[in-house]
Design a protein that fits this description.
CATH superfamily: Ribonuclease Z/Hydroxyacylglutathione hydrolase-like
Strand order of the largest sheet: 6-7-8-9-12-13
Shape: globular
Oligomer: single chain
CATH class: Alpha Beta
Number of strands: 13
Number of domains: 1
Order of helices and strands: EEEHEHHEHHEEEEEEHEEH
């Protein structure tokens, strides 16, 4: 039987990125999603919740999401899963990107497992399906818990907006197509945590998000 997911958001880096802890209410086994930086704060939140971290998950390779992943993997002794391998070049260049944005200590990182469309990821007794949703970055992925009607969408879609596509590798048409053809069909009742800003539901965004109106 699938567990009941819980989530806690820890805004990190100057970009106020939603680093997210997800865990099972039953087992207290969880994952850290997108540890962009501020690792001491992330570890304090893990202790406060009394959870055991099993892995680190990455939605994509931008500095504010992945800049702290390699060091956190070292600190916790857990593997990294995601994103799609199309973001390898972003993960390789994290030290240079960090220097450009004034973020100290960013390390290049290669995950223990790349993710692709149709893959499955487990976190304790929680199960997530993987969607490859390029456009914000070439290797962006979405984690979907169909049982819990919950998703972690990175910077693919936000409350009232969508991911920016003016960065290298971005493609606006590709992003909108991925949202409309892959993400929205998951169902209006799916609640999601984006990479920045407040949570929402796919139904609310389908009806009100100006970027998704025909």
């Amino acid at each position: 039987m699938a567990g009941t997911p819980r989530a806690g958001i820890i805004p990190v880096t100057p970009f106020q990125q939603n680093c997210t802890l997800i865990w099972s209410d039953e087992t207290k086994i969880g994952a850290v999603v997108d540890p962009g930086g501020d690792l001491d704060r992330i570890e304090a939140a893990i202790r406060d919740q009394g959870i055991t971290i099993e892995k680190i998950l990455l939605t994509h390779g931008h500095i504010d999401h992945a800049g702290g992943a390699d060091e956190l993997r070292e600190r916790l002794g857990v593997p990294i899963e995601g994103p799609h391998e199309a973001d390898r070049y972003l993960l390789d260049s994290l030290p240079e990107t960090g220097a450009n944005y004034g973020i100290d200590g960013a390390r290049a990182v290669i995950p223990d497992r790349w993710l692709a469309e149709g893959d499955a990821v487990s976190v304790g007794d929680l199960a997530f399906d993987i969607l490859h949703a390029p456009g914000h970055s070439p290797g962006s992925v979405v984690f979907v818990s169909r049982d819990a009607r919950f998703a972690l969408v990175g910077d693919v879609v936000f409350k009232g907006s969508v991911g920016r596509t003016d960065l290298p590798g971005g493609n606006h048409d590709q992003l909108i197509r991925a949202i409309k053809e892959k993400v929205l069909p998951l169902g209006d009742d799916i609640a999601f945590i984006p990479g920045h800003g407040p949570t929402s539901t796919l139904g609310e965004e389908r009806m009100t998000n100006p970027f998704l109106q025909e």
